[in-house]
Amino acid sequence: MEMENKVLYKVEGLSKSYQMGDVEVKALQEVSFEIGEGEFVVILGPSGSGKSTLLNIMGGMDKPSAGKVFFKEQEVTRYDDRKLTQFRRRDVGFIFQFYNLIGNLTARENVELAVEICDEPLDVEEMLEAVGLEERSDHFPAQMSGGEQQRVAIARAAAKNPEILLCDEPTGALDFETGISILQVLKMVNERYGRTVVVITHNAPIAQMADRVLKMRSGKVMEDYRNSQPLDPKEIVW
Amino acid sequence: MKKLNLRLVRTMRHAKGQLAALLAVMVTGLFIFTAITSAATNLQTSLESYYDQSNFGDVFVELMHIPSQEVDGLVGDGGIVEAKGRYAFTTPFLTDDPKEIVNVRVVSSGSSTDGINELHLYEGSRSIGENRVLVLEKFATARGLEVEDRFHLQIAGQRREMVVAGIVGSPEYIYLMENEQALMPRPGKFGVVFVEESYLGSIAGTGGIYNEVVFKLEDRARSKEAEDHLEEALDRYGVRRIIPRKDQLSNNVTYQEIEGLQAMTRTVPFIFLFAAGGILATLMGRMVKNDRMAIGVLKAMGYRNRTILGHYMKFALFVGITGGILGTLLGTVLSGFMTQLYLDFFAIPLLEVRFYPENIVASLVLATVVCMASGFLGARNVLAISPAESMKPEAPRQGHRILLERIRFLWNQVSFTWKIVFRNIFREKKKFLLVSLGGAFTLGMMTMTFWMNSIYGVLFEEHYGHFMSMDYTIHLDGFFHERAVRDLGRLIEADHLEPKLEVPFELYNGAKSGVVNVVGLVQGTRFYNFSDAQGHEVPLPVDGMLISSNLALKLGVGEGDLLRVRNFLPGKEDSYIRVRGVIEQTLGINAYMELEWMGTQLVERGAVNGALVATDQEIIPLLEDVERVGGVQSTEELQAIFLEFMDLTLVSIGFMLFFSGILGFVIVYSMTIMSIHERKLEFASLRVLGFTRGELFGLILKENLVMTLLGFVMGVPLGLFFVEAVSVSFTSDLYTMNRPVQPEEIGLAMLFTTGCILLAQLATYKKIRHLDFIEALKNRTT
């Protein structure tokens, strides 16, 4: 997909450091980039490169030590807790490596939990169908496979109808085939619903499906490039 | 239903065991609170309403004799608005069994009304005259007397037949006790008969005189002024006692019971509520800790802090409201039973069993406030959870050596499993404290219960076995010379017989005063053993007096102090008598003097009005027709009454044990379940290492035992504190409960507490048995 003119995210000089015992850890060091609306972005980097920290700050779950994040020209990093909550509620959908479903709610109820607090959510049944779970919607997480649980997590995030999906190692806990199927679902959400998707991963082949790739190491963006011909997830092998 | 609420319902269903346990403590606390508060309110409102309707007297005066025409002249001065004279005395009620001692108080009464202390008619007719009399309901019921039945009284040495015209209640005899020395009502052995005044005058030779006057005051708050005025105005009639309403025996005992109930509502329920609050706060804290990731997800989704906090607070609110409703309902039902039970003791004809919305509201508010406060205390950490942080597994706690590990020599002797046990205990300090406190409170309450179980027996045994050891006490109909007792001795062939002089006097120390029976005994009496608080024997002094410790406390005096003795006897002035010693007496409140010295100082030389007897014989039939004998009391009979009383106390002791047990059970059960739930991964790892289920259970058992042991260390002083508090609040003119807790009572309490804790422990075994360690190791759902 071509980079659109409209910038959704603008990250400027973002730094984050924290103390771990006597040592100061610099998780992010003056990171800057932009993400356009509708892009499928993969942030690639090894463990400890700062990608999860970056994702958390972008999603309004954490605050930087320095720098700014703009979302649709609004400076998210200046938001107070109330505004950040509103931002997460309206504009962002999170998908986690370990799915983090609510154990004592069924698949459908997990999705409904998310849409209950949104103004213009998507249809829950439609989302469950879109992720291929219409038959399993009344099952509890403990009765589902990892892949199915991650599909529920995607449906839950997407059903809120957010501007962007932030996915933290969404295939990290899954086998290859299941991982590929999850990437297909994410691609589908990106294309069918026009949502911006940011996937962070340490798995380099996944970068081949992205419109744009940000490579990170030691808290810095080392490389920022665009794929001229993104692959279909089915073509990816690792 | 909102999905968060649905989650809450499922969470509660999953934790139903803990929830039920928590509710049990909450409900127990509230139902005790509601039941006792309502019973006390029922009793008090009924009592006051009865007093109002019957125009119950404000001041009661006992005197030698006053001409009946003088009584009306007392109205108008000293705030007195009404006065009613009467003649009253105690006399034998004659039964078919010559061995049975039954006394009645005969009271003169108006033919159809009394004005003050109006009688409440249960059955028959209020109209009396000649030998048609009214009988107090408790006595009539106990003796099976019905309207138109006939019975016989010994009046002025003659057998008199009476006919029951009506069965009545009197505000003066709500709690029917013969005197302050009686332990409890004996409705079959002591009653009250109301005889028409002129008829009584004619058969008892008391026409035209009264020996008691009851007064109504304009303002009862100014009773002291009226008492001072009456003391002056009635001096020439030989005032024996002036009793304000608050000290009137029946009223005093009834109010002591009400105050006892009210005092209980201020302590016992709060122990349970405090425990429930502690468990709830811990449960909520643990729940939030375990839900850390779920809370992070909710925050990531855009749920507000207050919504998530509210989600957990709803759990607390549910416990508060459910506990409040159940506790209030059960308490209200029980209050009805309790109030009915009071009918056995307190004859209040207008006793009402009512629902008090204010008590129900108070109970619900109390439950909600305790639960919301505890819930917030436990769940407040929701606010501090950062969504980003919560996505990562919690960093392991920084390890450090526990105190015990630093003592290398000792630590090296400890086995591996005990090392795990000690580390867990020291690292879970809050849980450690709560379980220990649970054990401490349970032990404390059980110690108090076992102490209370034995205290009445000890009081009785101490008083009638050690303190005084006569077989019979004979009451004479007035003051006689010692020779009268020697004459009695010839009639009954006693092993030992001593004369006695027992007269009520008002003792003063400055503004403090109290009316007590002063007892004159022969020097070297074989029937009384006086000892001080240290248990040292105290001989009867040749002059001065010995006083019981509760009297010393009441008057604020000690050995060597001078007391003013207000003397009501005609021609006798008030005198000052020195306290020669303070003695321990478990039942009643008295002063003791050497017989002859007391006679000389306070009555007249050589005067006696009773005798103490040691004999194996049945002396009652021998004394039945003896003119000077007013009554005979047997110690054996008192023991039988006491056993009856003990049966009743056993019920309440059983309740107390049950409630105390619930406390220990629930705390240990909830904490253990929480612990198992949180340590699934740890236990699963240990199972993988080869630990059996039994060994895992043993680990928890050992942890709880160590915590319980510490609970015991705290529980013993706590129990002593409870006992001290109970003994102080129960010590009155009737009882002196200063017996220390015995080691066997603490031992029994420890045994019961351990039993409850082991039972709770066993109840948790199922959780260990069903622990799926493979699932525990792979589970990542929140």
UniProtKB/TrEMBL annotation, chain B:
Cell inner membrane found in the keyword field: no
Any Pfam family hit: FtsX
Keywords: Cell membrane, Membrane, Transmembrane, Transmembrane helix
Bilayer disposition of the protein: Multi-pass membrane protein
Domain ABC3 transporter permease C-terminal: 268-387, 655-771
GO cellular component: plasma membrane
Entry annotated with the keyword Membrane: yes
Top-level taxonomic group: Bacteria
GO molecular function: transmembrane transporter activity
Transmembrane segments: 267-285, 315-340, 360-383, 432-452, 648-671, 705-726, 746-765
Subcellular localization(s) per the UniProt record: Cell membrane
Homology family: Belongs to the ABC-4 integral membrane protein family.
Matching PANTHER family: ABC TRANSPORTER PERMEASE YTRF, MEMBRANE COMPONENT OF TRANSPORTER-RELATED
Protein name (Swiss-Prot/TrEMBL): FtsX-like permease family protein
Protein source organism: Anaerotalea alkaliphila
